Amino acid sequence: MAKIEENFSMQGMSGKVGNIFVYRQRGGKTIVAKTPHRSTKKTQKQEEANKRFKAASIYAKNALLDPTLKELYTAEAKKRDVASPYNMAMADYLRPPVIDKINAEAYTGSASGEKIIIEADDKFKVISLKVKITKSNGSLIEEGQASLSEGKWVYTTTTANASPTGDKITVIATDRTGNSTTKGITL
Asked: Which of 83, 131, 167, 179 has its C-alpha lying 20 to 30 A from 142's C-alpha?
């Protein structure tokens, strides 16, 4: 791979020249590389990754057309020393939220108003966290949205549950891009 520096006739050039070489832009520099050739057919997993990457690219382009999102991604890119707001938006799309911990120690089921505390994170922002409590046979006891308080998500129960042993608490975290992650615990 060759790098072209301070050549004004090549500055900003990108694209393929026949099947010989390719010009690419990386970090403000023009890079010349051999044209890539694929000798084998892509696997199903590779096809899925390509589709996801394409969807991330579409999301990033559209997000930067929205002045509010562009400002948020620009600020976050500068804060994290990421190459561009586009790259920040791509990373946001490609990384789903993570549910680190579901703390149900205060949940006894004896009364409504008990707290379940959830620690969830995303590279950018979790915008919604839904909590669902079901019996061991799958029947719904209650469900609702948790609220963010001091960096943790808090779900306040609305129904008394006489025998919570064996019941399941399921948490669904959703980020700005629509990615969701589900995690559950059994009481």
From this structure: 179
